[in-house]
Each structure stands twice: as C-alpha cells, then as structure tokens.
Amino acid sequence: MYKSFSMELAGRTLTVDVNRVAKQANGAVMMHYGDTTVLSTATASEKPRDGIDFFPLSVEYEEKLYAVGKIPGGFNKREGKASEHAILTSRVIDRPMRPLFPKDYRNDVTLNNLVLSVDPDCNPELPAMLGSAIATSISDIPFDGPCAMTQLGLVDGEFVVNPNNAQRAVSDLALTVASTREKVIMIEAGANEVPEDKMIEAIFKCHEVNQEVIKFIDTIVAECGKEKHTYESCAVPEELFAAIRELVTPEEMEEAVFTDDKQTREGNISAIKDKLAETFAENEEWLNLLDDAVYQYQKKTVRKMILKDQKRPDGRGITEIRPLAAEVDLIPRVHGSAMFTRGQTQICTITTLAPLAEAQRIDGLDVDETSKRYMHHYNFPSYSVGETKPSRGPGRREIGHGALAEKALIPVLPPADEFPYAIRTVSETFESNGSTSQASICASTMSLMAAGVPIKKPVAGISTGLVTGDTDDDYLVLTDIQGLEDFFGDMDFKVAGTHDGITAIQMDIKIHGLTRPIIEEAIAKTKAAREYILTEVMEPCISKPRESVGPYAPKIMQIQIDPSKIGDVVGQRGKTINTIIEETGVKIDIDDDGSVSVCGVDQESMEKAMDMIKIITTDFEAGQIFVGKVISIKEFGAFLEFAPGKEGMVHISKISKHRINRVEDELTLGDMVKVICLGKDKMGRISFSMKDVPEEEK
C-alpha cells in the first residue's frame, strides 16, 4: 500500500507518492509539483565493484517528449542520446548527492529521474532533484542525508522562490542551491551582473527554504525509510599507511609534491610508487591498494602543508594568482581568436559568426525555447594533461564546462536586433592544470571582442579552493587553485562576472557543506581576483570590441518589410528568393514580423540583393526609376524583369523618342535598360517608359 505526502512549496503543492510504482528499486518516489510529474529511483548493486578506487555513482535525467505532447523529430521518432540540458541537470543532481555517500563505498549506485509530464510553470528539474534525495533517503543505501534543493529568481529586484515560466523569462537570476540541515552543499547560478552582496542574500534565502523541505523529507523517512544496509569497506588499511610512512617520510613526500611544475611532481610520485611496489612485490593485496594509498598520503601531506603551514605546493601565497598572459589574433582567417594562459592552464577560443538561420535548434522539454543563438563549446584533449587516449567526443565534464562559460557570457551579448548573428565560440584546451573553465571564459571574452561582437562588458572568471580542519572555524580559502589543490582540497568555487557583478557561479565540494563565512570569503576573493584579471591582463590586451567584424566574417544588412509582402519576396515555391540567392550568392533570412537579413562576404552583392528586395516590396508609383532586363519581345513592346518575379512592359511607343517600326531595331533579349515607371495600364500591368527617363538618370 502506497503513502502520499504533501506540502505547500512556493504557492504550489508538492506531493510525494511512496510505494506506488517501481517497488523493486532500493528506493522510489513519484514526484508531483503542479502538473509536473517525475519518477525518481535509487538502486545499488549488492556487492562492490572490483578493482576501483572511487565511488561509482551514475545520475540520469531522462527527458521524454511525450511529457510535453511532442513526437521526436528525425527519422527514428525515438528519443536518442541525452540532450545537453539533460546532462547538465544530471550534473546538478550529482554534485550535492555525491559527497553524502560514504567515501569508502564501492557499490554501484544509479539515481534515475524519468520526466513523465511537464507543467511549464513547474520546472521538472526541481522535483527531479528532490526526488533523488528522497528516494535515496528512504532506501537502504548508506546516505548521510537528506538534502534539499531550491531554485530562486530575481524579478524587479525581488526574490521569487521556484519561479514560474513567465517569471523565469524576465528574471535577472537563475539560482539553484542545495543544502543539508546545517550547510550549503551546492550552488549553480546564472545572473545579469548581480552584485556580490545580493548573491549571498539569495543563496541563504534558498538555504532557508531548504530547511522547510528537509523537515518535510524527515517525515517521509520516519514513516517509510528502510534500515541502511551494511557494506564492505574499501578503505586503505592503517597497517599499509604505517608501512609506507616508514619507507617514505612525511618530509620526503612534502619535497616530492612541493613544486610548481606538474610533470616534475608526477615524476616524483611515480618514483615513490616504483620504490614501494618493489618493496611490497610479494604482498598482492597491498600492491592492489598502493595507488589509492599513495593518493591518500599525498592528500594528507598537501592538506597539512596548506592548512597548518600555509604553504602551497607551488610556493604561491594564499591569494596569489599564477602568472597570467593574454593575446588575440593568433589564428589567421578565423573570425576572432584569443588565448588566455594561467600558469600551466592554457585555453585558445575561436569565434565564428553566421546568419541567425544557423542558430542551434533545440528539441527538448522547454516549450518556449526552440533555438539558441549563442553556442559555447569546450574541448579537453588528452594531450593537454600529457596523456594519450583516443578522442570519443565531449563527455559530461566538457559539456558542463562549455555550458558554464556560455551562461557566464550570455548576459553581456548584444541582442539579435542590434547584432543579427548566430555566434559560436569553441574553447580548445592546450594545457590543463586547474580551472580551465574559468580560463575559457577569459579567452572567450577576448575572442568575442576581437571578432567585433559588441559585448556590453568584458567577463572574467576565477576559482577558489578550500582546505578544512576538524572544526567549522578551521579552514583556509585559496585563490586560483591548481589541479593538485582541486584533487586534494574540499571545494572548487568558480565565479565569473564583470566589474559590476556576477554572471555565473558553479560550486563543487567534497565535504558535507559550507558555512556562511566560507561562502562570503570565497565570493570576496573571487571578486578581487576577477578585478585584477580584467584590469591588469585582459583589458591591456584588448580593451573594447572592434568597431566591425573581420574581413573573413560574413556581413549582414537588415531591412524591415511589410509582413504582407513576405510572400512576394519568397515567391511561389521559393522561386523568387532562390533566384535572388543564385544571382548574388548571399544568404537571406526572413522572420514572421517582416525582418529581413541579407548575409554575405561581398558588399556589392549584398547591396544588389537588398535592392531587389526593396523593389519587390515597394508599392509602385509613377516616376520611380528602375533597371530591367529584357526577357520577352512582342510586336507591341518589350517585357522587362526588374526584380526576381517582378515584370513590367515598355510599349513600342515608349522605347525611343524617334519613331521605330520594330522593337527588335532597338532591343534584344538580355539587354539591361533603365526605365521610368508610368503606373499601371488598363490590364493592371506595370507600365514603363525608356524615352521619358530624365537625362541626369541616363
């Protein structure tokens, strides 16, 4: 028999059905928020997976187009691989959940969220996030929860909890915050230059709402929760640690990791592993655990160096940024390029401009968003970290980093009516040693400006890290973390923005949450670092967008026509518009409101196409001058085509000032002639005269 639980959340009813469906999963709930329905399940394998040194958690967010009454596009008519939006939602669910599982748990766990129906005013991401937390909390899977998630908007200066569709469309903030009972555990934000103090207020507004949701979850767990099962711990035995410390002293390990060169450090650690492997050659059990044991030894050494001695592995100060460099125009012939280097992290971003018709089409659950004009793609090849492996396309990490940079830059992009281009930026990772996503934001800003995209303000990004001790007050926030500090630290807090405010946040942590002082200090340190990067590095390289797009970028001219004339421009079965395109080599986009964009590289061809469109859409009046091509000759006159699909006639009496007996005496097929419009004749045809063209026009 199933049970149903309900609470009021932001003016709408949240209902959780337990034991109604999917009873063979370890935990399952049917989530209802408005008319949005999501099935969330949590399942775990009976035994740990052999040969791994990590927790194998998989989070899935499945979008089914029946949820919004659509049939998938394409030939197959079946949902294919997960959309980017689904991948990003899975990542947002994963990030707060993962730290709450035991660190030595090696059983496979899958959290699956199936979107069954979508109410546009109730974002399905929210019940999916809450559903994963509830399903895991009531299951027998070890989990130090519950946690809760809240979304927040900022409309006309006021916070809106879990905004509806209309509010999301005009909000200056899209914030998602996850919390445990005491602390904030995950932050994801996109914002229109929201000031730091307002952002902190918003984060803790979400935290307050999360506490109410956690109380609700507690009532469900109290009635329906299963006893947590025992599991086989995969922690490294203390005897192995003791044996390693006898062979490699803490001072030797500190010396091995204390260097600013990643390759040198890896070589030092490799030598230590070889030494230990030789010593433990006859102990197969210890050999299998050696990699994990050395990793843990490094971690303890680095954390002690930072927290107790305030020494960073590369010798920097706590707030010191690695050496920075910036340049533009390093790639010839592309529309825009820039490279940003921070220590051993190096990103090159290339910008490409195209007509709006090349915007990306989106086939997803969002009923309003069907395309996006700005696309940011991020690539992370194996050579960037000195490894060799085949390229298999972007993974979830690459998609997530690209989306973060895209989110950070969208607030400063010009609107389409001011800059009618589809824009694609591609960030190529040349070197990686920490926080490539934030270097990508810096490189992309400069690349956009180099391409002549009139962005409102430059955007920079930086990441802070964290090392904590035994109490909430024992911690150290680090500016500009490198890879080692990310691996062995407790936090990766990424913040991007302009001089005036934040445009994006992404926070990943490995502990059970952050206190308010830590969050405030992290945001303050990212602001100071961001100001330095903008002022001292990026702006000296390129201070403002170029006045025009580059010579190899397409040029776009725009005109507004009467929407009732769109059919005249398109012509029957597209004949007219295709003729214009064939004659001029341009691309033409027409919107339903009558906005026409002509795109091409050659200015003369664009102007010719624009003139044709103007002629086609003009209401003809006597006295207008045109140039036409003779397409037909009759005894009584000649027919001219003066624009694709537009014809008129010159009567034989209007061809020349002197009397002629035959039209062929003056005109031949294909002649280009200048004529003046006389209006329409009795048959409704446009009538022209050659002989009455003013001398100055001839």
From TrEMBL:
Q: Which domain of life is it from?
A: Bacteria
Any one Gene Ontology molecular-function term assigned to this protein's record: polyribonucleotide nucleotidyltransferase activity
> According to its record, what are the GO cellular component terms?
cytosol
Q: Give start and end of each KIX domain.
A: 223-302
Main localization of the protein described in the UniProt heading: cytoplasm
Q: What is its EC number?
A: 2.7.7.8
Subcellular location(s): the record lists: Cytoplasm
Q: Which cofactor does it need?
A: Mg(2+)
Record-listed Mg(2+) binding positions: 486, 492
What Pfam families does its record include? KH_1, PNPase, RNase_PH, RNase_PH_C, S1
Q: Which UniProt keywords apply?
A: Cytoplasm, Magnesium, Metal-binding, Nucleotidyltransferase, RNA-binding, Transferase
One GO biological-process annotation of the entry reads: mRNA catabolic process
User: What sections of the protein cross the membrane?
Assistant: none
Q: Which InterPro entries match?
A: ExoRNase_PH_dom1, ExoRNase_PH_dom2, ExoRNase_PH_dom2_sf, KH_dom, KH_dom_type_1, KH_dom_type_1_sf, KIX_dom, NA-bd_OB-fold
Catalytic activity field: RNA(n+1) + phosphate = RNA(n) + a ribonucleoside 5'-diphosphate
Question: Per the database record, which ranges form the S1 motif domain?
Answer: 623-691
The family this protein is said to belong to: Belongs to the polyribonucleotide nucleotidyltransferase family.
What does the UniProt function comment say about this protein?
Involved in mRNA degradation. Catalyzes the phosphorolysis of single-stranded polyribonucleotides processively in the 3'- to 5'-direction.
User: Which NCBIfam families does the entry mention?
Assistant: polynuc_phos (TIGR03591), PRK11824.1 (NF008805)
Q: Please report the name of this protein according to its UniProt entry.
A: Polyribonucleotide nucleotidyltransferase
| Source organism (scientific name) | Lactonifactor longoviformis DSM 17459
